[in-house]
Amino acid sequence: MSTLVVVSAGLSTPSSTRLLADRLADATVEALGGADVTYVELRDLAHELTDQLLTGFPGPALAAAVEAVRDADGLVVVTPVFAASYSGLFKTFFDVLEPGLLEGKPVLLAATAGTARHSLVIEHALRPLFAYLRAVPVPTGVFAATDDFGDRGLQQRVERAAGELAVLMGKVDPAGVSRRRRTVEDELADPTPFEQLLREASEG
After folding, report:
1. Is it the case that residue 10 has pLDDT exceeding 80?
2. For the chain, is the Cβ count within 10 Å smaller at the N or the C terminus?
3. What does the pLDDT look like over 16-42, one tens digit per residue?
């Protein structure tokens, strides 16, 4: 069975970052037809991450998280936006991974923020980071502002990105992944707000 690791860098409990991570994980498991999922909550590893930066040695929980990432067929990574970029905790986790550990590994990139002003963070911050790490990000990144969680468009992006991750993990034939798009009849019956169309265009 496929193995999926979900790395969530939310700091609060409950967390919108973890909420988005859960939705992405559920959609990916559905696209794969089942998977073993391991969650890595970076909030719980903050002290061990600091210790490794200072000593060079991981604690037991951090070592287990790194090993899970090493063995995963694919990753879902989700960060809150701090100062227009990924959080320091998120970056620290990927800083302590040994060089080459993510090489060739499929990754679904996602981020949360309070407003849509940060919607390009995936393109200007996360993609360059994971390109440097030689991972293979899926084409669709998923950004969610606070208002997006009640929006139908978010779930559509979640499902599209999850399907792309399943394909990159080599477990699903691309022809078998549903990518249903809205028809003219859909739009006439329930028009998509212009603001949402602009937001989706900016998110690619």
Report:
1. yes
2. N
3. 999 999 999 999 999 999 999 999 999
Contact 165, 76 (CB under 8 A): yes
Q: Which CATH number describes the domain made up of 3-203?
A: 3.40.50.360
Asked if 74 contacts 162 with a C-beta cutoff of 8 angstroms, the reply is no
Q: What is the rounded distance in angstroms from the CA atom of residue 126 to the CA atom of residue 194?
A: 27
Mean pLDDT of 163-167: 97
Dihedral in degrees, nearest 10, Cα atoms 174, 177, 178, 179: -50
Residues 163 and 178: beta-carbon distance below 8 Å? yes
pTM over 0.70: yes
Name 74's bridge partners: 4
For residue 23, what are its two tokens? 């939705």
For helices 152-168 and 194-203, the axis angle rounded to 10 degrees is 20
Region 147-171: mean pLDDT is 92
DSSP per residue over 63-126, as a string?
HHHHHHHHH-SEEEEEEEEETTEE-HHHHHHHHSSPTTTTTT-EEEEEEEESSGGGTTHIIIII
Residue 191: other Cβ atoms inside 10 A: 10
Quote the CA–CA distance of 62 and 40 in Å, as a whole number.
9
**8 Å CB contact between 106 and 3:** no
